[in-house]
User: What shape does this take?
Amino acid sequence: MTDAELAAHLAHCAGRILLEVRASGMIEGKALGKAGDETANQFLVHAIRAQRPDDGLLSEESKDTEERLSMERVWIVDPVDGTREYGEARSDWAVHVALAIGGKPEIGAVALPGLDEVLRTDQPGPLPEAAQKPRLVVSRTRPATEAVAVAERIGGELVPMGSAGAKAMAVVRGEAEIYLHSGGQYEWDSCAPAAVAAAHGLHCSRIDGSPLVYNQRDTYMPDLLICRPEWADKVLAEVAAL
Assistant: This one.
């Protein structure tokens, strides 16, 4: 099984596990989110260590160690991206499984279990036709200041949505043109989405235009831009002008 096949299979299986946990009806609310996180994380961690024992691993739900810092290949996972949406039985949450090689988001898969779909780096499809009026996906509760300002400057429309993975995949799926985020994320929030988005031909960077670099000692990565390539220069220029 290739790395990309493994990532897609693990993301799909973790998503199925999460749906089963939720469908049990035994847990609700925040407790459901916690149970889902822990259950999916145990599966992903054990499976990756069994299948790729020589690789490093970074997961939102596991204690981090410095061992990964000396490794060229590091798996970066988020068992439930969008715990709130998962607990609310919405569809805009995701499972992230990525492999960073030399700090670059090279391989990955993003499962959208609520939509029964897995988007992956080894099966890129053509980008759907863009809307004439650019759509920017933003947080349901805390739209990024920069995103709101850029939308106003370019005549864009804000589309509230749940998790980071769901937002990034909305651009891949043709439901939006731009995902501009600022205000706080970590490596596991964007590594798999960035890998998948790049494989589909989208622009992926920090909001100052610098590259996304993973497997850092400090896993905080507060901002990113994932957008259709024809919008990249314009959006970066508008952010710089703010």
Observations:
- The radius of gyration is 17 Å.
- The mean pLDDT is 96.
- DSSP finds seven helices and ten strands in the chain.
